[in-house]
Write a structure and sequence with these properties.
Strand 4 and strand 5 form a beta hairpin. The chain has one domain: Rossmann fold (3-Layer(aba) Sandwich), CATH 3.40.50.300. The strands form 2 sheets. It has a 6-stranded mixed beta sheet, with helices on both faces. The protein is built from 7 helices and 10 strands. The protein is 34% helix and 28% strand. The chain is α/β, with parallel strands linked by helices.
C-alpha cells in the first residue's frame, strides 16, 4: 500500500478583509497518497490555489492540521519550509517564470545550485530532465526563442530536475493550445508512471481533467466530491 504523502485534517483558511475575513477553505480534510496523479477542480474562488499553496508550504492554514511528507508544515520555521520545498517539492505554474537571460540549461539547473550539488551531478540531472521533456536540442536556447509549449516543458524539467516526491501544478495548460496541452500532459503522466512522482493539479481545463486518476471538487472552500477515474 502506498504511503500517505499529504494529510489535511479539518483545515480552514481565512484571509483578513475589511469586514472581518474571507473564508477561502472551510473545514477541509483530504489524504493524498504517494504516486497519485490527481487534481483539485472547481470554479474561480473555490479555494483551489489556496489549497495548493498550503500543501506547497507557501501559505499557512488558519486552523486545522497539514502534514506533508510526515512534517507538520505550520510548525516548520521559514528555513525548514524552504528546505522542504527545495528538496522535495516541484512547482509548475501557468506562467513559466523562466529567467530570460539564462539558457534553457541554466534555467533547469537553477534549483540544483540551491542544493549545492557538484557540477557533474548537476549536469547529469539537467540532461536527464531535458530528455524527459524532449528538449535536449534546445539546451542552449533562451526563453524568448521558445514556443509556449516548449517554455512550459522547460518549467516541467526545472520542477523535475531534483526528482521531487511531489509536484504541484497550478493551471499548467492555461496558456497553451490543445496540441501543446496534450503534449504537456503526456509528459507529466509518463514521469508519474516511470518514476512515481506524485502530481497535484489545480485546474478547470477539461483536457487536464480527463487525464487525472482522481478529481477532488471544491466549491466555496468545501470539498463536495472526491472521484476516482479510470481509462488513462
Amino acid at each position: 500500500m502506498n504511503e500517505t504523502l499529504v494529510q489535511i485534517n479539518n483545515i480552514s483558511k481565512i484571509y483578513p478583509t475589511g469586514e472581518g475575513g474571507f473564508l477561502a477553505l472551510n473545514k477541509l480534510s483530504l489524504d493524498i497518497t504517494d504516486g497519485e496523479f490527481m487534481g483539485i477542480v472547481g470554479p474561480s474562488g473555490s479555494g483551489k490555489t489556496t489549497l495548493l499553496n498550503i500543501i506547497g508550504t507557501l501559505d499557512e492554514q488558519t486552523s486545522g492540521e497539514v502534514l506533508v511528507l510526515g512534517k507538520h508544515v505550520n510548525k516548520l520555521s521559514s528555513k525548514e519550509s524552504a528546505s522542504l520545498r527545495a528538496n522535495k517539492i516541484g512547482f509548475i505554474f501557468q506562467t513559466y517564470n523562466l529567467l530570460p537571460v539564462y539558457t534553457v540549461y541554466e534555467n533547469v539547473e537553477l534549483p540544483l545550485l540551491l542544493l549545492q550539488m557538484k557540477k557533474e551531478e548537476r549536469r547529469k540531472a539537467v540532461m536527464q530532465a531535458l530528455e524527459w521533456v524532449g528538449l535536449t536540442d534546445k539546451m542552449h536556447s533562451r526563453p524568448n526563442q521558445l514556443s509556449g509549449g516548449q517554455g512550459q516543458r522547460v518549467s516541467i524539467a526545472r520542477a523535475m530536475v531534483k526528482t521531487p516526491r511531489l509536484v504541484i501544478a497550478d493551471e499548467p495548460t492555461a496558456n497553451l493550445d490543445t496540441e501543446n496541452s496534450i503534449n504537456i500532459l503526456d509528459t507529466m503522466l509518463k514521469i508519474n508512471q516511470d518514476i512515481g512522482t506524485t502530481f497535484i493539479f489545480s485546474t478547470h481545463d477539461p483536457k487536464v481533467i480527463q487525464y487525472l486518476k482522481r478529481v477532488v471538487t471544491l466549491i466555496d472552500g468545501e470539498k463536495v466530491k472526491d472521484d476516482y477515474q479510470t481509462g488513462i
